[in-house]
Amino acid sequence: MGLPVKLSNTLVTAAREEAEAGSRSLTAQIEHWAILGRAVEKLLPHGQVAALKRLGGGAAATPALANREAVGRLLRRLVASDARAAEQAHLGALGGPRYGVDPKHPGLLLRIEADGTRTLGRLEGRTFVPAKPVRNHKSA
Asked: What are the beta bridge partners of residue 130?
């Protein structure tokens, strides 16, 4: 069930402009931004999320008002295949755990500690919870 919320005039104006350009309703545009924002927050470390937000102008940031070129450059750098090794090295140097996926275990996240230890699990709220080990039993 929907819940009414208050939005700034700046956000609503930007959402209307983007909705028109993207052939979406105002509600669909805001939901689209929310889905993208949640995905980015899950994939990027907090420091990079904060950097993206600063590029967009802080709390009043909206994609329509953001410095699109700067945000675009950052996102292109993050996904470019030739930059991945450098980004992984940079993230590894930060020391905290990194998160990824393992195609052999769909639906689970892979936490990689600074020492290389790998743990499968899932997020519950914003907390990583290791998955229970699955044992392979051979039939006799």
From this structure: 121
Rg of the Cα trace of the chain?
19
Measuring CA to CA, which residue among 100, 94, 92, 96 is closest to residue 119? 100
What is residue 60's predicted lDDT score, i.e. its pLDDT?
A: 45
* pLDDT one-digit tens code per residue, 47-77: 777 777 776 644 444 544 456 667 777 777 7
Lay out the sheet containing 118-124: strands in order across.
Answer: 98-101, 109-112, 118-124, 127-130
Does this model's pTM top 0.70? My answer is no
The residues near 29 (Cβ < 8 Å, ≥ 6 apart) are 15, 16, 18, 19, 22
**Which residue is listed with tokens 């393992």?**
102
The answer to whether 26 and 19 have CB atoms below 8 angstroms apart is: yes
Neighbours of 19 (CB within 10 A): 18
